[in-house]
Amino acid sequence: MRLPHILLTLLVMIIWSLQFIMIHIAVETISPFLLCSLRFFFASVPLIFFIKRPNVPFKTILLYGLLTFALQYTLFFWGMSLGTSAGIASLLYQTNVFFNIFLAACFFKERLSPSQVLGIVIAFSGIGFIGLHLDGKLAGWGFLLIISGAFVWAFGNIVSKKIGKANMLSLVVWGNFISWPPLLLLTYFTEGPRAILFAWQHASFASILAVGYIVYISTLLAFCIWGWLLNRYPVSVVSPFSLLIPVFAMLAAFIILGEPLFYWKIIAAALIMSGLCLNLLSAKFKRRQVEP
Questions:
Q1: What are the b/e assignments for 29-50, b being 16+ CB within 10 Å?
Q2: Spatial separation of the C-alpha atoms in residues 163 and 64, rounded to whole Å
Q3: Rounded to whole angstroms, how far apart are CA atoms 111 and 241?
Q4: What pLDDT is attached to residue 284?
Q5: How many Å is the Cα radius of gyration of the chain?
């Protein structure tokens, strides 16, 4: 990757790292289904009335919106609402890198070198190291929901890759617009109007700020940049950068939320960083061998 694009990717990682803090704040007063509905509504309205639909089949937009936004974030917000801390959730979510590379190999025949595979193994050993130190604090359902959300996001990345060079802002806005009506209905039928009224009555400045960050920074800005990068580089090159998210997220959770930064979190972060560096360097070396 070119240096400006690497810096752009790092910016997205920082944005998504701080998102975990914002979600932690928001789910204290807003139910996960309603939070998803608000996120997608404000990310698409009123922009939907001014932005032309992307030049791709509607069923593709529907699939992209339901996978990348509706289902992914419903599972993820639900998992965090069950008590999963911001730092641990950010680590569990990195299983999407494994799913990304596996699906890219299946759909796009992207081949990995042995050193890239070793880098992935090292990185995921860091996540496994975290799993050995959870000591029962992470609810089993929360664990499964977050892992499921990571798998859905990987599928969403494959759909984004297959779409090609579409207008990413248009695709994100229309994908969000498709997502909020079914989630609002899900909120109404599963939690009732009482959940909506409770969120309205107990909305704080912090929760409003968190929703604004999730909508405009994490969704509109970050997803447009992410889709743009996926259209220019192989999934196996771009997706490993998301392994940096737990490193940034744990530091942010320590500074902002006061979550303890245990030694095993530092060891896990070091393993993840080592795996990421090995993966990126081996990919660069492989491209140099192919180029004349």
A1: bbbbbbbbbbbbbbbbeebbee
A2: 9
A3: 18
A4: 60
A5: 19
Q: Is 10 helix (H, G, I), strand (E, B) or coil?
A: helix
Determine the Cα–Cα distance for residues 277 and 97; give it in Å rounded to an integer: 14
Q: Which residue segment(s) compose the domain that 268 sits in? A: 3-290
Give the torsion through C-alpha atoms of 103, 106, 112, 117, to 10 deg: 50
Other beta carbons less than 10 A from residue 6's beta carbon: 13
pLDDT tens digit string along 107-164?
777 677 787 788 888 877 887 777 777 665 555 678 788 888 888 888 888 887 777 7
Give the model's pLDDT for residue 280: 67
Q: How far is CA 248 from CA 18, 26, 146, 242, 268, in A?
A: 8, 19, 18, 10, 13
CA distance 23 to 30: 10
What is the count of structural domains for the chain? 1
Separation of alpha carbons 120 and 105, rounded Å = 14
Which is nearest to 91 in space by CA: 241, 237, 249?
A: 249
Contact 71, 187 (CB under 8 A): no
| Torsion angle of the four alpha carbons 274, 277, 279, 282, in this order, in degrees rounded to the nearest 10 | -120
Give the 3-state secondary structure of residue 177.
helix
Helix ranges (H only) for the chain are: 3-26, 32-44, 58-64, 72-81, 86-92, 95-108, 114-131, 140-163, 168-191, 193-201, 205-212, 222-230, 235-238, 245-252, 263-290
Q: What is the pLDDT of residue 285?
A: 60
- Which residues of the chain carry a pLDDT beneath 70? 110, 134-140, 280, 282-292
CA pair distance 252, 256, nearest whole angstrom? 6
Output the pLDDT for position 213: 92
Its pTM stands at: 0.75
